[in-house]
Amino acid sequence: MSKIKSLIRKTATPANTNNPILDNIANSDAPINMTANTPIEQTRWNGWGNININKKVSAHGAKLIKSHIGKTKKLNSVSLAQVLKTVPKSRLPTAITELKTVSIDQEDRLRHARGQSFPDWIAMHGGDFEVFPDGVAFPESTADVEILLKLASEHDLIVIPFGGGTSVAGHINPQKGSRPILTVAMSKMAQLIDLDNESQIATFGAGTQGPAVEAQLDTHGYRLGHYPQSWELSTLGGWIAARSSGQQSLGYGRIEQMFAGGTLVTPQGTLNIADFPASAAGPDLREMMMGTEGRAGIFTEVKMRVQHQPEEELFKVAFMPNWEVGKEVLRQAVQKNIRLSMLRLSNAVETDAHLHLGTTPSQFLAISTYLKARGLSSDKVMLTYGVSGDKAQNKLALTEFNKLLKQQGSVTGKITDIMGSVWAHGRFKFPYLRGTLWEKGIMVDTFETATNWNHIDEQMQQMQEAVQNALADEGEEVMAFTHISHVYKQGASLYTTYFFRAAQDHASTLSRWQKIKHAASSSLANGTATISHQHGVGRDHAPYLAAEKGKLGIQVTSDMLKSLDPEQRMNPGVLIED
Amino acid sequence: MSKIKSLIRKTATPANTNNPILDNIANSDAPINMTANTPIEQTRWNGWGNININKKVSAHGAKLIKSHIGKTKKLNSVSLAQVLKTVPKSRLPTAITELKTVSIDQEDRLRHARGQSFPDWIAMHGGDFEVFPDGVAFPESTADVEILLKLASEHDLIVIPFGGGTSVAGHINPQKGSRPILTVAMSKMAQLIDLDNESQIATFGAGTQGPAVEAQLDTHGYRLGHYPQSWELSTLGGWIAARSSGQQSLGYGRIEQMFAGGTLVTPQGTLNIADFPASAAGPDLREMMMGTEGRAGIFTEVKMRVQHQPEEELFKVAFMPNWEVGKEVLRQAVQKNIRLSMLRLSNAVETDAHLHLGTTPSQFLAISTYLKARGLSSDKVMLTYGVSGDKAQNKLALTEFNKLLKQQGSVTGKITDIMGSVWAHGRFKFPYLRGTLWEKGIMVDTFETATNWNHIDEQMQQMQEAVQNALADEGEEVMAFTHISHVYKQGASLYTTYFFRAAQDHASTLSRWQKIKHAASSSLANGTATISHQHGVGRDHAPYLAAEKGKLGIQVTSDMLKSLDPEQRMNPGVLIED
After folding, report:
1. Cα–Cα distance between A158 and A170 in angstroms, integer?
2. ipTM for this model
């Protein structure tokens, strides 16, 4: 017991932990900027996030991964100066370049050429960007964007909207072609424009990043409540255009429930989407335009449904005997309308990996001993949950949920409560882990879907097996684990993380990734699971979209987009293949 | 006090009350059929509902209305036999008429020619149907519908989908034109086809009416929870095609939250909309097709999100000092996430009218005395609310809500609790009132919208004034009152009921209605209120749709529909004017 007490003492102070799940702000070099948009020059040009923030990984965590994928070797990385030399002359006409909103600066063009997909990382580290936008516009108003799209039509440009540049599916990558490419970066439209306290509607510039959204609302006592893992850098416009979902979607809803209306500038003119509370007047323009991923136009000002800051917010952890009972707890909780704000369940492999990655060997032993003494075996799974709201509502939700947990043999206690708090403190640092592992030659990517409860197990197995066996022809093992992070009465999301080792060069490492990606994507193309629950389609998922929409579904979506962009200059090839 | 006690005794037995709001099943000639679809031959050919059900109105209620609109005189009504003589020969080709699913019987065609809009009632009672469908198909499967649409393309027919025939906006009326018209009645597709207990998804034939939906689910312990006022006769397919909202939408959501996916047969083929719990894979096909009002195709099988029957369900009434504080209670309740399943607030005029219409003079005096003794004046408003769920969840919700009520000076007690129960028992009998009033020469119609909280008062005033003054040129007074029946964090619906007196004949009575309708619709066309919160667009609201969607919004919607119906044979003119 002394080990456990010591562990509790240590983890009680977030600054003393070192755990990718049980992470915290204090153990990084700098805190996340919580008040305003992060200037792009303060972000890594070839990886995730703020240049002042890093994230460590434990030695025995890395060892566990290597015990699966084998000994690794770091890939080479080119320098920014080397890549800058490869940026060609801009093809934009002077009518565009003379606009005060437009830059043809080489670094601006480089920094807006790629997102955060695995192929993007390979391109950035290998120095092979292939294509750069011919210029980057930084509009400050809807009128600026209207001018840009008008000139784009007159001069036959390709236009790519750019929010936080956090796409992991190839949403913002310029493609080879004869038409000059203008990327429209929304970073200067980042203000709270209007707040209707009575209707609780906040109007924002669409380029506002997560922290700036919440900081501006918080001064008025409000919260949006949308917290995707990319929250530090991703934007309102990006969330809407790619149908994002945040970690507390159970309590606050997906972006679809938050987006009330707004302004979409299209090549055919400006579409003002009215912000009614509800309407029976035909198909919903909001829902027709959400998920268009830049192919219909550019969101400039967006009206968001906000709420009062919760009186109380708690995050907790429980360990369950196995996946089956953990899943049953999630399903019953949501179907019984228990008012939690988040639910997340790691499968047994993920639970073990996270306990390794986030602990010292002695901490790991202490936790393992603690859980084993309470009857949990290697089948154990970690369940993270939260409440956000009035204290009385939270109390009832926790009472109801604890009853469910106990019925299914949960282990909870002071130590698991601390794990919950620590998870909450560090939850936006996760994406930094990719860079840390990259430096060790460990390649990591994720894959996600959503399916109904009756398909969850089958789909998880199919996804994991597809990923694990994808490099069998090279004799390479891929390590994979999965969690459920978003639950609905009808089903849940599945989020698989996988690790493989870098090959001898960038191209053959990319080839490994492509095999895995294709195997995983194909495992979804069965009509019962979506190609994306929260990342969108982009270019990477577009080949698999027809499997779920059908030929006719693709046709009607495509015709809808062509109505607003008949010359297909808006982000062509994204969402629907040309 | 003896009067009050006597009233409580009387109202405690639903059979003894006679009140349009505080109504009950017992005081009608027959109960609503609660188990299966009502055969169309058991419904009125020229009015609302089951031929065996009637609804009385109190003498002093009718007197109150007449004190506003003046002395009334009943309009003539033609007989069914007279109208049957006006049904012309069918123009359908033999390739259609020889199908076993198709009828060209004159009464079938007559009974599927009109809905329940005010112009429909004028046409049915005046005997001027104008146009009849050339035949009515009664498909029994998706394959039947596919054959029908294939033949419709080959023979260039107009096709009109028909659910319960309850449209109040002209959704199912055939129009003059050279193409023969086939109405497709979905009444034979009324079965529960599949139930996934784990994912709580029920698959139904789209022609299933409200009672048959709930009866088939109830045998398995489930509930859909969609209760529009038309519930007795309206269908799943109709609710989805016209974006319906039920009385308990606060707890169960609108039809948009219930419809998970399904099959839409279109002239371009069959669109299978996948039933994912959520997806980020592009624009949502569900939301693109909901609200298409028959212009994209015909819903045949629909997958609905269902829930366990609630452990407890209660409906209650409270009286509030005035509209302002009543509205404040509604807004705070929803914005504080108090888990009620319904909220409804009648304004002062509606409160007074309903208390008159549903009572004897002595009951009215007793209630008025009771409320006056508790400090309520003629400004008082009636607030109806409900909870549906687990007892613990309901208890918390009622505790929180009662606190809000008391803060705002509510009057509640045994008598108001009874009013709530009685409202619940009689809530689907309301549409029968139109026939009762019609027989007295009192014309009644309703008008509804939704807007944000900050526009509610202004919009209600505009709507009511527009209606009240619409017949000023004829020296006629229109009586109007309003309630809020659906609340959202962002805003609420407004539902105005109005009474005017019949003119000397059907045509001039219709002309009065047209003036009122245009005045009311124009009062909405300001971009802040929708032309319909729950009735859909049909033909009657189509001229006003552009005011809220904008020219570009209409264009993109129209192009989306044309993608599935390039020859515009599906219900042309509905939703978007030709």
Report:
1. 16
2. 0.94
